[in-house]
Amino acid sequence: MKQNIVKIENLSHRYTRDWAIRDISFEIDKVGILGLLGSNGAGKSTTMNILCGVLNQTEGNVYIDGINLREKPEEAKKRLGFLPQNAPLHLELTVEEYLTYCASIRDIAPSQVKNAVKEVMEKCGLTHFSNRLLRNLSGGYRQRAGIAQAIIHKPKLVVLDEPTNGLDPNQILEVRKLIREIGEERAVIFSTHILSEVQAICKDIKMIESGQMVFADTMEAFNNYVMPDTMLVMMDNPPGEEELMAFPGINRVEFLSDRSIRLQFATDKDVPKRLITAAVQRGWELTELIQERTSLDEVFAQLSNKSKR
Ligand SMILES: Nc1ncnc2c1ncn2[C@@H]1O[C@H](COP(=O)(O)OP(=O)(O)OP(=O)(O)O)[C@@H](O)[C@H]1O
C-alpha cells in the first residue's frame, strides 16, 4: 500500500474556550505544492504548528510518512521541514554558520554537514552570500535562508507558513520560483491569505475559514467552482452583443458604455488571448483589457452561497 507523506485526521484545537480549528482532515501522497488558503485568523498557523509538532492538538492525529507525530515526535520530525511565520534566523551568524548549525541540529552526520550546507546554499541561491551576516541580507534572501534551513535535511514534507509575506514584488517572484523548484522534489504545504499566491504556484488547494475546511480540490477546480473570470475591455469599434456572446468561452456580456464592456468567461484561461487575436483580425480596435480579480472575501462569500444552495 502506498504510504501517505502526511495524513491529518479530524484535527481540532482550542487555545481557550472557542475552537481555533475544527475537524480538519486531509492527506498528501505525492510531491507538489498544496496551498492552504484562508483569511487572517482562519486557522492556518494553528494547523501548520500542529502539523509540525510545535503545538499539541486538542483532538485528532497527524501522521508524517506513516509515523504518529504525537507518539514518535523525533522520528516524525526528521521527515519534515518547517518555516514558521517568523523565520527562526540567528541574525548574528553568517549564512554558512547558520546553515551549519541547522545541519547539526537536524542530525546530519558530521562528515556530511559541509556538503549538505554547500548543496542547500546552491539550491537556494545563497552561495554568493555565504559569508554575509543574516542581519545584512535583504528580506528576500533572509527568507531563502529560512527555506534553506527547512530543506537542508531533505525532508519529504516542507511546510511554509506565509513565506512571501512582507516581501517586495520582485522578491516574491524569486521566492515563488524557489518554492516551485522544491515542489518538484517534495511535498510542500504553503499557507497564505492571498488568493493570487495560491493561484500562481499551487496545484491543489485547501481553503480554511473560521477553523473549518470549506474547500479541498485542485486549483483548476477551485477556479472553475468559485469564479467565472471577468475582464473589462475597451474597444473603439466593438462588435454587437450577439457577436461577443457567440465567441467561444464567453458566457456573459455587459455593455458598461458604448466602448467599455465587461465579459465573463467560465473555464478557458485562453479566452483573453484569443479575444485579442480576434479583435485585431476583425477590426474591433481593442485599446485596453483588464482581467478583474476576485478578493478572498468574495470567494468565501461565493463558496458559502454555493454550499447553501
Ligand atoms: N496563542 C493563542 N492563544 C489564543 N488564541 C489564539 C492563539 N493563536 C491563535 N489564536 C486564535 O486562533 C484562531 C486561528 O488563528 P491562526 O493564527 O491559526 O490563524 P491564521 O489563519 O494563521 O491567521 P494569520 O494569517 O493571521 O496568522 C484565531 O481566532 C486566533 O485569534
TrEMBL record:
Gene3D superfamilies for this protein: P-loop containing nucleotide triphosphate hydrolases
Keyword ATP-binding annotated: yes
Cross-referenced InterPro entries: AAA+_ATPase (IPR003593), ABC_transporter-like_ATP-bd (IPR003439), P-loop_NTPase (IPR027417)
Alphabetic keyword roster: ATP-binding, Nucleotide-binding, Transport
A single GO molecular function term of this UniProt record: ATP hydrolysis activity
Residue ranges of every copy of the ABC transporter domain listed in the record: 6-235
Assigned protein family: Belongs to the ABC transporter superfamily.
Protein name: ABC-2 type transport system ATP-binding protein
